[in-house]
Amino acid sequence: VVLIEGRAAAMNRFNRKPEPPESSDE
User: What are phi and psi of 25, to 5 degrees?
Assistant: First the structure.
């Protein structure tokens, strides 16, 4: 269950932040 939850969280983060290499605000 923990694995699934972690994966869902990671997917959610990726979906919200596609990690744009050109639009790096960090």
Answer: -90, -10
